[in-house]
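Chapter summary example.
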Amino acid sequence: MLGIAAAVLFFIAFLISAADIATNQAFASGNVMLLGLALLALHVAGIGAGWRSGRTRRR
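The structure predicted for these 59 residues follows.
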């Protein structure tokens, strides 16, 4: 899930950069890209990969 959010943030950063949209400092393309990298790092670390149920099937 975090990988998808990172991809969306990278796309938004690309659009801001490619269209040369004037934004304030909080939503500059570099800052959005860094947020995407942070989400991607969390995804690679295994955080937010999915919920595991406590149930295990034993026979």
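To summarize the output: The mean pLDDT is 79.
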